[in-house]
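FIELD: query
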Amino acid sequence: MSELKEFRLPDVGEGLTEAEIVAWHVKPGDTVTDGQVIVEIETAKAVVELPCPFAGTVTKLLVDEGQTVDVGAPIIAVEVAGNGPAAPAPATDAPPERTAVLVGYGVMNASTKRRQRRGVTEPPATQVTAEVAEAFGTTDGAVSAVAAAPASEARGATSKRPAASSPKGLAKPPVRKLAKDLGIDLAGLAGTGPSGSITRDDVQRAAAGSTSRSDISVGSRVPIRGVRKHMAAAMVASAFTAPHVTEFLQVDVTETMAAVRRVRELPEFEGLRVSPLLFVARALLTAVARHPMVNSSWDEAAQEILVHGQVNLGIAVAAERGLIVPNVKDAGSLTLPSLAGALQALTETARAGKATPADLSGGTITITNVGVFGIDAGTPILTPGEAAILAFGQVRDAPWVVDGQLAVRKVCTLSLSFDHRILDGELGSAALRDVGLMLEDPLRMLAWS
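FIELD: result
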């Protein structure tokens, strides 16, 4: 006796309230096994894979790709056998395409694409052409030579054939709809999917690039969804909950820039990216040790200030999906080489879109490096739940008085925004002053550590 079960969108952590369906890996009629990944969803923090909690046959997909659904809403219906054994996993020798990093869930580490059906023999060339045409909504036979080639050759066609042989504008209906919503012309995109097809990631990358250029079409509309939607809500909540104060300090960082060059030559830092941000991070961590209240949170419900026992140092990253703030756990306990490695791994992972919910949760204080955008200073908004955020401006040559004489020095501006409920002007000024003094003379970090 079979039974129809609905799989409801679960809370994958951090109080998830809704998520967007990015891509289905199954369709009606497919057999699924218990634990098989069936769908990718985008939360406020990451793209997460969801496994099916039971085995059976898919009867209906209840939510379309690109649709946002609330936690607890049914997303797929599966017909499950009442008493028989669970459906066996299809035999395969292929290695798994992804690695789960959460209990029951996994964060995608590759471009979104449907998996090849396991245990299915390779169809002939004419069948591949027909299937590609059907899947991508092409009915006029205008499928490129890549799609008409044997499947084994087509899978490698992207790298083996010149770009001119890739199909232009080949994309599945949900991707076409996304491109239309974002105002992206598919004919001008190079696809990274199977047979050179255009994926959601290709469209979103194009949209991310186009929204930052002055040539964006007048009157176009960009949907507010995913990371941008949640980031906007968090910034509004932060700005209108915590009373912000921002202080500025110009600093002569000539000695820090010299220290950066010397450290790059040390064997302990071989293979690591050493930048001024590393010294800014170490200076802030040292300042936190001297002024623990800077690393705290306001608990409105309990009417308490929580002073954190360790520093989870957040680094604001402008990723393709929007602004995200992954953090280095217990950064204050790391040596300088370990901190350099952690910062490098964190930013590379975030920019590649592979940051996990764990990477993006639990931060206690943040640094935003606006200098990489050619900006001197700003008034950064606090990451929700944190008491302070430090903005590091660009380092530039500027006239500076040294020992009573005018000289050209390396100068930058530091901007510290803090929650005035927790930090008064004296404490905020003391923390900012300490960071500045350590960047003027990096040896102070040794004396104060």
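FIELD: remark
The longest strand covers residues 405-419.
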